[in-house]
Amino acid sequence: MSTFVDTAPAPPRHARTTAAKRRQYAAAYTLVLPFFVIFLAMVILPLFYAGYLSFFKKQLIGGTSFAGFDNYARAVTDPLFLTAIGRMGIFLVVQVPIMLALALFFALALDSGMMKLAKFSRLAIFVPYAVPGVVATLMWGYLYGPDFGPFAQISEALGLPPPPFLTQTGMLFSIMNIVNWEFIGYNMIIIYAALRSIPSELYEAARVDGASEPRIAWSIKIPAVRAALLLTVIFSVIGTFQLFNEPQLMRTLAPTVIGTAYTPNLYAYNISFVNQDANYAAALAFLLGIVIMIVSYIVQLSAQRRERRS
Amino acid sequence: MSATPFTRRKFLISTAAAASSTWFLAACGGSEEESPGPAAQSASAVPQSDIDKALDTETTLTFWTWVPDIQKEVKLFTTKYPKMKVNVVNVGNGAPHYQKMRTAIQSGQGAPDVAQVEFQYINSFTLGEGNLLDLTPYVPARLKDSYPEWVWSQVNTNGGLWGIPQDTGPMGLLYRDDLLKGAGLEAPKTYDDFAAAAETYHSKNPKSYLVNVAPNEPGQMVAYLWQAGVRPFTFDGKQTVKVDLANEEAKRVVKFWGDLVTNGVASNDPDFNDSWYQGLANGKWATLPIAAWGPVFLQGTAGKTSGKWRAADLPQWDASKVVSSNWGGSTDAVLKSSKNQIAAAQLAWYINTNKESALKLANEQFLFPAMKEILTDPSFVNQESKFYGGQKVNEKFAQISETVTPDFAWLPFMDFVYTNFTETLGKAFANKTDAVAGLQAWQDASAKYAKDQGFTVS
């Protein structure tokens, strides 16, 4: 009911806009202006420039020429690019559910109020997010090390071969692990904040009805934080397809496992700065953006459909 | 042209006192028969009066380099020419440095006057209309004689002098005296000995190896090819390149290293990462084929192995003639876009050829020198290094520098070729597959890139 009241069509009022109101508008626009100036200069303009670049072809010999959609046609048939997108698809399907399930679990555990040291635990789970990704990757790189890393040394002491963290098969999972470690805390905080905003009367009513804590979590808490969960899923989709720091740094440890096209972003970067082909890189970046939009839209759509069904 | 030597002489006497007077003597003592390079014929020298005037005008130069503490040498220049002001900027080490240079050049502003450029990247900046200034008219006509032939052939290409050599990296073999002795071995003199030693060493020390073949180190592999006489690249300065990585000689070299790896007697670890540093310190490898900048680097990385290392020549393909190659090394180049070309050229020239400055670079910053005069200077060659059991390592590498073969040319897109190595030949080393097939893949990818970029591939 309340939503209806909020969005009810207001009577035409602009004719009677008072001077005070106008001043308020002016103040509001002045306040958001700095943001928009920077947003325009640092995001919108480069975006348009990149879009413009993507329609040209520049060779070291022969210079620049108009290429139409050639770069895009090349990208959608580029096995390296497609493999990279596919790899991120696997990453998305495997890593994101694990990360979000754990984040949700920790958020529920903290919210249940049954934990001792709740504040400390909350901070401890969140701290990895505060560690810069670069540092985190360097740290994990050491832990994964096949010669002198602690895991390798333990398995050596047990007479086993070193764990295959940095091999062709193990690498993707090693990176998933780093990303999990980094982002569980971040997602947990989002979900936890949503949990805190659920009115406690609902819990009381459920308890009066004899619901157990797990039952409350399943039937009240999780449905109530669905919007927050959707948000974390979409953030994760975007983050996954843009994966860059972790593979870029792991590359020094396993340069032949992580090629120049391990992730789509890494590929675009290398095309631009190693192959000196900013035009093709721009086309790749745009296609990547489109892929992210499509996947995010699918996620949102399926969530809405489920909502409508329930 | 006939007036040039005179101007040069005047120039050196009047401006570049200490360093160049020895250069002058050396130049006079040098043989007369060699003809001046094509560049010397095409470019006429800048008159001394113009140089003096430029150096006596208030000027601010921007100098991009990642050499630590180069302010020391720049200060010698600014002390001598008080009207010069130099902003030294470190915009990144290696790749990011070049990326920023290219971006600045493309945008038409913000590019430095003087920039560090490694030998193998010079051509990528002389490409097309060219972004580097031909320094021939700005330096003494006989500067050539100050350097070993191979050094000069790195900077004087396609009719121009594109940078003043700053440091070089002649290839030698560092080895663990104690470990080799422990296995009953000596430093291998030939590659046959080397292969046999690799086998013996590994059979006696199953957990360690004679050598590592890094699957991510194109510079090292190219140095091996260079030593074997392979000249895989040419560039005519315009639009024709030769990419000939998979020739018979190169196949032989690559097969040699590939066999060591597939036979399990050489490791295939990526280098220059923590694991590799730890391996060096922990005796995972008994030898390290590396450039002249290696000894100081190793000292800093594997401090606890002090006294156990020695330096020697690389193993040889032909024992009767000791030859070596180069890995790394830099120049200071002047950008064409500089508004103060004369002053910029003088800065690049002065800090790298003035004796006091060049000795500082060698003895304080440990850059392995390019100039003959420094390579023979007692204060440089007579240093005994504790880390190498008291051996005169500088002297050893100075000798090696004389054995480096000249005329190794580079493609104008070595970034791609080097990066692609890791995906092709390097991958073969990493996966212990056929190295010769990997070499062919490297060749094919490099040639394809050249064609895609509009080069004529011969």
Structure explained in plain terms:
The complex is a heterodimer of chains A (310) and B (458). Chain A has 14 helices and 2 strands; from the N terminus they run ααββαααααααααααα. Chain A is mainly α and 310 residues long. Chain A folds into 2 domains: 13-53, no CATH class; 70-309, Orthogonal Bundle (MetI-like fold), CATH 1.10.3720.10. In chain A, strands 1-2 form a two-stranded antiparallel ribbon. In chain A, strand 1 and strand 2 form a beta hairpin. In chain A, helix 5 (118-130) packs across helix 8 (171-196). The longest helix of chain A is centred in the N-terminal third of the chain and has 35 residues, at 19-53. Helices cover 46% and strands 14% of the residues of chain B. Chain B has helices at residues 4-14, 17-29, 38-42, 48-55, 71-80, 95-107, 122-126, 149-155, 177-182, 191-204, 218-227, 248-262, 274-281, 294-301, 341-353, 355-363, 372-375, 378-381, 393-403, 414-423, 425-431, 435-452, and strands at residues 59-64, 84-89, 114-118, 156-157, 160-161, 164-176, 233-235, 240-243, 287-291, 309-313, 326-334, 456-457. In chain B, strands 1, 2, 3, 6, 9, 10 and 11 form a 7-stranded mixed beta sheet that branches. In chain B, strands 7-8-12 form a 3-stranded mixed beta sheet. In chain B, strand 7 (233-235) and strand 8 (240-243) form a beta hairpin. In chain B, helix 20 runs antiparallel to helix 22 (435-452) and helix 21 (425-431) packs antiparallel against helix 22 (435-452). Chain B is globular. The two termini of chain B are 36 Å apart. The relative contact order of chain B is 0.17. Residues 1-42 of chain B have low confidence and may be disordered. The interface between A and B is medium-sized, with 24 and 35 residues.
- Rg of chain A over CA atoms, rounded to whole Å, is 25 Å
- Fraction of helical residues of chain B: 40-55%
The helix count of chain A comes to: 14
For the record, the CATH class of the largest domain in chain A is Mainly Alpha
- What oligomeric arrangement do these chains adopt? heterodimer
The CATH superfamily of the largest domain in chain B appears as: Periplasmic binding protein-like II
> Helical stretch count of chain B?
22
Q: Can you summarize the main beta sheet of chain A?
A: 2 strands, antiparallel
Please give the share of residues in helix of chain A: over 70%
CATH architecture of the largest domain in chain B: 3-Layer(aba) Sandwich
And the CATH topology of the largest domain in chain A? MetI-like fold
